[in-house]
Design a protein that fits this description.
Radius of gyration: 17 Å
Structural class: mainly alpha
Oligomer: single chain
Largest sheet: none
Number of strands: 0
Strand content: under 5%
Length: 243
Amino acid sequence: MFPSLGLSPEELSYAFLIVIFGAFSQGVAGFGLALLIGPLLVMMNPVFLPAPVVILVLFICLLTVYRERSAIDLGHVKQTVVGFVIGTSAAAMLLSQLPQRETSLLLGGMILLAVLLSLSGLSVVANSKTLFSAGIIGGFMGTISGVSLPPVAIALQNESAARLRGTLASVGIISIAMAIIALCSIGQVHAREIFLAAFLFPAVLIGFALSSKVAPLVPPRISKALVFALSVISSVTMIIRNF
C-alpha cells in the first residue's frame, strides 16, 4: 500500500486509466469526465469521493477555457454563478451530515439525474431566471459529484458550440472553486485528497490531448450516447452495491 494515499499500486493504475478515458470523453463529447469517473472510482475506493473528483473537474475546465477563451459569454457566467452560491452551500450542509454509504447513493442519484437532464430535450431561453435556477441545481450537484454543468448546458443549448463549451467551462471553474471551498469548510479536503488529484492530473492531460486528434472523426451523437450508457451502468451498479 502507498501509506500517504491508502491505495494499492493496482488501484492507482486503474484510476489513472479511468481518468484518461473520462478526460478523453470530455474532450470528444464536450462533457463526461465526472459522469464517468465518479461512479467508477468510488466503486473502487471511497477515498475518491468527493474532493479528488471535484478537483479533477477543475483541471479539465481550465484546459477547456484556455482552448475556447475567445468565445466565452461573461454575462451568462455572472448570472449563473449567483445561483451556484446557493446550491453549493446547501450541498455542503447536507454532505456534512451524511455517512459514506448515503453519500455514495446520493452520488449515484446525481449522476442519473444529470443524464436524464441531458436527455430531457427541454427547450429553454438563456435569461437571468433560467441561468440562476440552473446555477442552484448545478451547484448542489457539483459539490456532491463534480457534475455541475448539465443544468447550465440546457439553459445554454441554443448557443454556438464554441460559446457553449467555453461558457460552461468558465462556469465550471468558478462553481468547482466554490465547491472546493465548501468541502474544505466541512473537512472533506486533506493532503491525501490533494495528492491524489495531483497524481491523476497527468491522466487528464493525456486524455484531453488524445481527444484533440479523435474529436473531428467521431459523430457527436455516438460519443454522447456512449458516455450516457456507461454513466448509467456505473451509477446503477454503485447504487445496488450500497443498498
